[in-house]
Amino acid sequence: MESSSLLTVVLVGAFLWISAIHADSKDDGKVLCTCENGKGTCVNGTCKGDICFYSWVHGHEERGCFSKVYYMEQCFSKFDRLFMHCCREYLCNAFTTPPPNINGEPTTTPPELSRPELWITLSLLLLITTASMCGLVLFLRFRRAHGRLRNDVHGDRDVTMLKVPDGDDPTYGDIFDEFCTSGSGTGLPYLVQRTMARQISLVQCVGKGRYGEVWRGTWMGESVAVKIFSSRDEQSWFRETEIYNTVQLRHDNILGFIASDMTSKNSSTQLWLVTHFHELGSLYDFLQYSSLEPESCLRMCLSVACGLVHLHTEIVSSQEKPAIAHRDLKSRNILVKRNGQCCIADLGLAVIHSQSHDYLDVGNNPRVGTKRYMAPEVLDETIRMDVFESYKQTDIWALGLVFWEISRRTIVNGIVEEYCPPFFDMVPLDPSFEEMKKVVCVDQHKPSLHNRLHSHPILSAIAKIMKECWYQSPPARLTALRVRKTLSKLDHDSDFSTEKLKRDI
Length: 505
Ligand code: ADE
Description:
Blueprint lengths: L2 H22 L6 E4 L11 E4 L1 E7 L2 E7 L4 H5 L6 E6 L28 H38 L5 H4 L9 H9 L9 H8 L3 E9 L2 E8 L2 E8 L4 H13 L10 E9 L2 E9 L6 H7 L4 H19 L10 E3 L8 E3 L5 E3 L6 E4 L4 E3 L14 H4 L8 H21 L24 H10 L14 H13 L10 H25 L1
Antiparallel strand pairs: 1-2, 3-4, 3-5, 6-7, 7-8, 8-10, 9-10, 11-14, 12-13, 14-15
Helix pairs in contact: 9-11, 9-14, 11-13, 13-14
The site of adenine (ADE) has 13 residues, from strand 6 and strand 10.
Enzyme class: transferase
Membrane topology: Single-pass type I membrane protein
Subcellular location: Membrane
């Protein structure tokens, strides 16, 4: 960016920021804006907010208002086929139109451009730009094809992630490529998320619970999952939206985020979280009807451990990421991918910690974790809530229970157990806090492990890990990193012995 435009951005930013802060101290601090195409958010063609905007995204025009928290990210979004104008005066966005060249239309020629040297310079510039663009397109194509090849080699058959556009419609992968490599790296700009969310058609409800509903939807012909939060769980939507938009969370074993959207419908607020869709559903659903070979059990357990390590780890390089503890890890919050790996979902209760920036953010969600999966220190309320490590240790307790659910459904010596939730034989369905506390803290029961597990090298190692996730004393438990390392080694060793077996035959 040129220094003059940088200066303009800084000055306009400072102006908007100062006026937004100033607005807090007068009246309700809001300005009346023209509102069009904002679905349910407009009242009689107007809305009130900190900032008025006019946006033009891929031909979709919108006028409305938004909160000052978005202005830095939104008002200075500069992308192909996206025009954004922000202002803070009464109805100041009413007559804004996109610049004439937004679709590549020629602008009027200034008189100096008739000089031949200028024409030559411009032609050269155009040539260099075109060559760079072609180079970039070729590079991206190569990288995509290479990535696909690499996934094939590693047996990753998650085809929803690998789809190439066959027509002119972009895939959400294309949209991410366009925006996320040039932006903050945490996701799509808020207005693009909103535009995408509003282009989704809901197809089928695939889950319903206290949290709300999950739907399969389609966006430009691709399946997406839409979680519609119940109004009483709005804090979970805020938290998950905040985390996905501020933390770089792209990882194979963390559910892929696409967009978040808030609309009002018949005077009630609708909260959407749009993510990748995994047709095999949750691990809980999957285990009801599937049994596993020990190698598949290992692959699943390892993938969950990888996801948890990514969450629990703070990264301090340029790809900075705080540490995150999940606080509601369970088989219903884990999704099964087509390649046999899992990904962790639902960050609505997560806590964030950064040692380098010296903060612990526990959020303000009144929700608590799932009682059945609560660690003893949560049930007897001795957990040190001011220490981040404590939350990671409760995730490890729950991780052991998830491994236990998977291992019950694993066939060893021709024997497999039916699906049962942890502590099924000790507490009723929907147990109370007191019932769980009696079993887990007073009687110190642990889920029982079937004898067959001890006769298989993979399952006996996983059983040992489970036991070490269930120590009553939180610091004695394994860390996610240790679990991942042990399982990775087991995976390499079992690959090695299979290869050896093949060679020997
Ligand atoms: N159930 C909950 N989230 C889901 C998702 N992302 N894909 C499929 N089923 C789900």
